[in-house]
Description:
By secondary structure, the chain is α/β, with parallel strands linked by helices. It contains 16 helices and 14 strands.
Amino acid sequence: MARILIVEDEKAIRKVLRDILLNENKKYHIDEAENGQQAIDMAGDNFYDLLLCDIKMPGIDGVEVLKYYREYSPDTQVVMISGHGDMDTAIECIKTGAYDYLSKPPDLNRLLNTVRNALDRKNLLTENKILKKKVSKQYQMVGQSEALNSVRDMIDKIAPTDARVLITGANGTGKELVARQIHEKSNRNSGPFVEVNCAAIPSELIESELFGHKKGAFTSAVKDRKGKFELADGGTLFLDEIGDMSLSAQAKVLRALQENKITPVGGDKDITVDVRVIAATNKNLQDEISKGNFREDLYHRLSVIIVKMPKLSERVDDIPLLVEHFSAKIAEEQGLPMKTFAPDTISYLQQLPWTGNIRELRNVVERLMILGSSTITLEEAKKYI
Ligand SMILES: Nc1ncnc2c1ncn2[C@@H]1O[C@H](COP(=O)(O)OP(=O)(O)OP(=O)(O)O)[C@@H](O)[C@H]1O
């Protein structure tokens, strides 16, 4: 249940506020602080969802309390209570991060509405965090090999910038995972991550897919539709399999990257977009350039930073950790009993060629989890792989 701290030097006002809140919901947990110092001290041992905080108090005032909570308990919502004469300060407080302010004496309806909305906002923040944790767990990068650690170092350096990134590497080496990690660790992480598989979209549709279209632009365009560039506004656009994009689509992507502007198919107005582009390919783009299949100018626009994903055969040290990770994940996802892999089974896995890389390893682990006994033996591995 919601935990609320009332920070107010006048005892009578504290009592009125407490009574009103408990009348609204008996389950609210309400604490009181009679000055700013107490409110700050109480933050150490407690977490509050909401602070109702007087602005004018002797000693440490409400503004200081607000600043303290913004820094040390940023999810706590703070509603300021302002008396005559400190209206300007109340407005300033909103700029510092207060959720809202109430004037003294507080109007009952406004007080209750503000409290409800502030608590809703706090719950939303918590839910978002839980969701984010789940998502980042889903895209966890497992492995401690030197090759993977150097990719990790690069991600940490690249993520906070807006530099375009080209991720190269064979199928199943984890290129998409890297793109997601860069997004998650960037300051665009509250914006969308939009993925486009350029190889999967027929060339005649790719323009509309990327830039959107206006109603009537072509026969099946029955209404306006936003493209992936616009959907990724404020976030990251991941252009997977960029080496498979047609030359005409490449020309349009080049323009979007040069000008940060797009024009929907059938539209006559440009739309400005704020998108970080990360591209990936399993092709050697230099070869594609010499064959005339890929534009050199687009290559240079995309490849400000190049991340080269190692093959699984170059990081066999990671196989034990990957097997453990996938088997736990598969057991959970499919409700299968947990199984272990015998040491000689793991050594055997480390010697296989793994042309499909980590995706192939995951499939093999899944197959063995389904078909193998509780400790998966070398014989079983040889039989089923
Ligand atoms: N280091 C890693 N730790 C855990 N899982 C990984 C790792 N790298 C890749 N995977 C998993 O392997 C699978 C393939 O990875 P991903 O799709 O990122 O590869 P890709 O290089 O983009 O493949 P493709 O080129 O075929 O699109 C995914 O299920 C991904 O979650």
